[in-house]
Amino acid sequence: MPGLCRSDLLIHAGSSLTLVSEVPVETDMYRCGALLYGILRPDWGFVPTMEVAARVVSVLDYPNGAYVGYDNAARLTRDSRLACVSIGYQNGFDRGATEAAVLIRDQRAPVVGKVSMNALIVDVTGIGGVSVGDVATVFGQGHRAEIPQATVERQFGTIMADLYTDWGLRNPRLYA
Question: Looking at the domain covering 52-170, what would its CATH class be?
Answer without folding.
Answer: mainly beta
